[in-house]
Structures are given as structure tokens and as C-alpha cells.
Write the C-alpha cells for this entry.
Amino acid sequence: MLTAADRERIRGLLVAAADGDRASLEPLLAVLWPSTLAYCRQVLRGDAMADDAAQDTMIAVFRRMSEYDAERDPLAWVLGIATWQCRTLARRRWRRAEVPAEGTPVAVLDGVDEFMRRDVIRAALATIATLSPADIATLTASILDEDGRPGMTGATFRKRLERARQRLRTAWRSRHGTS
Amino acid sequence: MERAEETLRRARRAYETSRLAGSLIAAWPVAPLLGLTVILHGLATPAPLVIAMGLAVAMITCAWRGRAWQRGSMVGLAAGIPALITPSIVAALRGEHCSACLASATGSMTCALACIGASFLAGIAVGVVAASDREASRFTGSALTVAALTGAMACGLTGLGGAVGVAAGLVLGGVPTVLLVRQSAS
């Protein structure tokens, strides 16, 4: 787990490297590598290609160093690149796995969609977990049948559901920047 | 361990390649400056072309190296412009074209003195800016090199003497100023 001080250190190293300070490259890699590798392993569920994804992420970070905006959270920027690398590798693997010997691609997109769908579900669950227990209960009740709802009138429940959804949208936007 | 070393090696290569590609754009001011040189001074010899190429290489190298090298090159480019245009102004004041400066000893002497004087003042300006930089010596070195090459595109027309004059003016004005400002600050 990186502390606020660690993030500031990463920010300083990224800014220095973007300015041409070669001495900051090795410490930057040393501080970013464990977090990136852990993240890639989590996203790819411990798959062997997580190491490749982490390595590709580091290379992409070093290549795109000049694009880093010092106002942004450095770790979010790096992990954003890591997410992209994980998806690219997963997509590549699906293509390789799904192309039959004759060379005709079959159901390639299904595999990619499945991977991305799982990714979105994981992100959604993580966002829901940040809501209050009451909001989580309301959202859960909304997808269950009528009997599963707590004892309240339909109008009250709809109002609570609307508020819970609004808070969920806000939480999602703050975490992922999109609605 | 091996993986981390390989990652560092590949990441470094990606970093350097990206920096080099990004630094190529730093040479763009050389083209308009060369155009200005040709307009103001004509193109009697290939010297300005050779110096412009050297200037482009210096700008790209400084941008690739980054930090004080890059900051200094930008200031140096601006500092070299007075030396580039001063001979034309002096010639115009004398009612001549710049290319006529070699026709008389007085003309060439006036031109050389104006060129060195402008470079000297530009050198002082470089020194003042460089003194506030964290890496003053690199900043000064980079700024003086780029300024000398910029000014030499004009003064180089009269031969090596003109280029040496620009460089000497910049060094004489810049280096003591850095030392003086640093000494008074500490």
C-alpha cells in the first residue's frame, strides 16, 4: 500500500524524469514496479502474463513520460496505462487462443467482451462497496423481487432508490471519470 | 531480479528513443533564423548553412539531454538574435547593405565591434538568467554555445573572426556575470 508520501515521491521522480533527469529512472522503476505488478496480477487474476503486462506498462510509462501532467495523481496515471496493457495482452491472448488452424477467427470478440465485462463488473462492485449500507441494501432490493424490499411504500422505495443510484453515479464518476 | 534488470534496460531505451524523437522539434527555430540571415546578409558563402546545421544539432542535443541544457538552449537562442541582426542595423545606419562591410576597413571594424558589443550585452543577460538556475554551469555552457552559433550565422559570413568575436563577447559578458551574481547572492 502506497502512502501519500510515496505518491509525492513518485510525482517528483516522474517530473524529474520528464525534465531529462536520468538519475531518477532507476528509483522510479524500483518504486513503481511492485505496485504495478500487484495490480496487473489482480486484474489478470494471477495469470502468468501479468509479469509481461507489468513490464509493458513500465516501458510505456517511460516512453510517455513527457505526457505526464504533474496535477494528476501519479499512481492513477501509471495504473491507467497498466489497465490498458492488461487489456491489450488479454485481447492478444484471446485472439491467439481462438483462431483455429485454418486461420479463420471465430468468436474472438466474445472472449474480449467476456474479459471486459468481468472488468466492468469488478469495478462496479468496488464502487458499490463505497456506498452506505442503506444505499447498498436499497440497490440490492431493487434487483430482487417485491418481497425482498424492506417494509415501505412503493413511492418511498422509489425515492430512496433514485437517491442511491445518484450517489452510485457520483461515486463511479469520481473513481473512473465517466458515467 | 533478472526480470527487473531487463525491464529497466528496455524502459531506458524506450525513454531515450522517446526523448530523442521529441527533441527533433526543438530545431524548428533554426529554419526561420536561417531565412532571416539570408534576407539580412545574403548567402555569399555556405558558412551560414553549415553553422545552421550545427545550431540544429546543438538544439536537438540540448533538448534530448533536458534539464539545464534544454533551458539554456532556449535562452541562448534568444541571446544570439541581437548578434544576428546588429550588423544589418549598423550597416543600414551607415547607408550600406550588410554585405558591403568588407569593402572598407572602417565598415568591417564598425560591424565587428557592434557585433561583439551586442554579443557582450547578450552574454550579460545570459549570465543573469543562468545565475538563478540550479545548474548554472550547464545552463551557461548550453546558452553560450547556442547563442554563439546563432550569432555566428551572421558574423560567420565575414569568416571565422566574426564567429570568434560573437563567442568571445558572450563568454566575456556571460561567465563573469554568473560569477558576480552568484557571489553577491551568497
